[in-house]
Design goal:
This protein is of the alpha+beta class and 276 residues long. The chain is 24% helix and 26% strand. It starts with 10 loop residues before the first strand and ends with a helix.
């Protein structure tokens, strides 16, 4: 594992320029800053490569279509990412690609011809595996029909409020229900569980983001989509929060203890590493 050893700030890529992070600036009328008008992708860096980049760029482009936002050029982004890894001497960790609608006039109405702001940053990996988490079920509900379920939006206030609510109740994170009472996802992760010998996750139609790692497990035949409700919690033999970067065991949901299964956790981590 390597990462920048220089005391200077690491480089980032902003609108076509490589800059030390301490020198980068955004315009004060950028709609991402003012309105959360944009989206992002958090991307795994592994052994000096970016194994799931095409999937992330596809999801980003899908989100851009939903938001009526010009998508960045794939070749440009790929070159920027690979060069940035070299500049920051990073072989393990993550990159974040952030895209906003760019500058605009006051008010909600977007400019007719937006000039998006595109930012890429990198981060070294955490030094330890994530600890098991306890999940709270908040009063806040997911709208299964919202088009924003398919977008990694910059506006994370619903997730932030849900996580604050969970922490005030003595939990670590929140697990959303939709208005039909079905389980969906956590504030920033796919929910995955093991029931009756199968790995299962809620279907996208329940109102959740199409996770990259989630899709890989389903395509490999290792996980099934099944509608779940809080009544299924006692049947859960194990559970996890899954992102592009991590797999976190769940130790409790709404006060009900969930067994920790290190063997299944290790098997999942191995599968995620092995499958494309």
């Amino acid at each position: 594992m390597s990462h920048p050893s220089s005391p200077h700030a690491p480089y980032l890529w902003l609108n076509g320029q490589f800059l030390p992070s301490s020198e980068a600036t955004l315009l004060p009328n950028d709609r991402g800053f003012l309105l959360g008008d944009g989206l992002f992708e958090t991307i795994l860096i592994q052994q000096g490569s970016i194994p799931q980049l095409e999937r992330h760029l596809t999801r980003l482009e899908d989100g851009c279509r939903i938001l009526h936002l010009p998508a960045p050029n794939r070749t440009t982004i790929t070159h920027a990412l690979t060069t940035l890894l070299q500049k920051n001497q990073l072989t393990e960790g993550s990159a974040r690609l952030t895209l906003t609608r760019g500058s605009g006039p006051r008010g909600l109405t977007p400019p007719k011809h937006p000039m998006p702001t595109t930012l890429i940053t990198t981060a070294a990996p955490p030094s330890t595996q994530p600890h098991p988490v306890r999940l709270h079920i908040p009063q806040q509900r997911r709208d299964a029909l919202s088009p924003l379920n398919g977008v990694k939006s910059l506006n994370m206030l619903p997730a932030i409020l849900a996580r604050l609510d969970a922490q005030e109740q003595g939990y670590d994170d929140a697990l959303f229900l939709n208005h039909q009472g079905q389980l969906t996802e956590a504030t920033a992760a796919t929910f995955l569980t093991h029931i009756n010998g199968n790995y299962v996750t809620p279907p996208l139609q329940a109102g959740l983001l199409p996770g990259i790692s989630r899709a890989r497990l389903i395509e490999a035949g290792l996980c099934k989509e099944i509608s779940l409700t809080p009544h299924d919690i006692p049947r859960m033999e194990a559970a996890w929060l899954l992102t592009a970067l991590s797999l976190t065991p769940v130790s409790a949901i709404a006060g009900q203890e969930i067994a920790l299964n290190p063997q299944k956790t290790n098997a999942l981590r191995h599968a995620l590493y092995a499958i494309k």
